Amino acid sequence: MRRRALLATLGTALFAGCESSPNDRVADPDATATETYAGTTLSDPRPTPKPPETVSPESAERFVRDYERATVYNQLLPGNPGEGGGVEVDPGGCGGAKSIDVEEPTTRVLLTDDVGVYVASAISGHVEYACPESRSASGTRNHNFVTHYVGPDRHVTIPYNAYRCVGREEPYVSPRASENATLDTDDDGHREEAPLKLQLYNFHPDDPAVAVWLTHVGSGDRVLAETYPTDLSLVVVANLAVRTGTYRLVARLADGTSVTREFDATGPSAPGWNGTCVYVTPQKDLRALVVEPEGELGIPTSRCHESLARLDTTTEK
What we know:
Layout: E1 3-6, H1 57-76, E2 97-102, E3 106-112, E4 117-129, E5 138-151, E6 154-159, E7 164-168, E8 198-202, E9 210-216, E10 222-228, E11 234-238, E12 245-252, E13 258-265, H2 271-275, E14 276-280, E15 286-290, H3 304-310, E16 315-316
Parallel strand pairs: 7-11, 8-14
Antiparallel strand pairs: 1-7, 1-16, 2-4, 3-4, 4-5, 5-6, 8-11, 9-10, 9-12, 12-13, 14-15
């Protein structure tokens, strides 16, 4: 099988789990101005909570909401060394924060096992920087989809803003056109909807490699048989298939730990098409699940299939 790998991280982020906004800098202060801001500024970071000693779906969600509110607030606070500070603003008149607004986070439980709980979250925050009256500067932080593991005295986060793109050069298709999904394209003929993909999440500090096999159940065709490193916590295995039907996923670690899951992939609207995931747990076990979209919280649609198609120098045999 010919495949391509994009070993660069994707996503525009200044901090892990945070995306910058075009409004990070609304107006550049005039470095020659002598005006100063006469009001007060915010200076105290918010304490970050610790994971609950007794973990349940309810306590895990509550912890994640408190954690995300504090984290986004602190990331927007200028000069906060524990969080790297807020958006860089020219010191010629603007600097501190006069107001920080953090929205109520959205959370949902994705998986509960005998050790911990996996929770997805989304949240946004906005800061208004202290500037003289004739100028303004503001910034935002968007944590659009962060997956949290919450266990007794343990918390691991994986944001969907930096990931390794791997996958097939061309997706698997059926010789019968009626068995293939129709993927919308733009005016230039580029796919706006992606072929089938998988997500590999690594919550274990040893970064174990994961071997993955994917088979189309109806035909018995092997679509994928590869081993992927997990030194980057999120790997998107993209451009896998256009053929619809049921697929069997098998994932295995070097020590023999494995997991198997079958999922339906009837097209881009099917949860399994974009939301099939394998988790390497903090205990070095494996879990497989399908993350169904729910309101604002669903696996984002990566552009890995476009990135793989553009690569000319990383083709492997």
